[in-house]
Amino acid sequence: MPPAPRFLTLADVAEVLSTSSAQVYALVRRGELPAIKIGGRGQWRVEATQLEAYIDRMYDEARAFVDAHPFTEGDAKGEAPEE
Question: Is residue 78's pLDDT more than 80?
């Protein structure tokens, strides 16, 4: 089995995160997901370790949100939360 690649394309990252390449590009351009530009055409690449760190940060942020906004029975009767 070949080793996992060190760098991922934005399309690869989008697949991992189950989102669009455009959304990943926006994360990179806003500086939320560190990436590098390589080659003459300046193609973006995200290091696998940076992607894992981003995912960990998103879990931390979600945990902090849940802690700050406890679920109540009234929430179960309301509309579905935004994604």
Answer: no
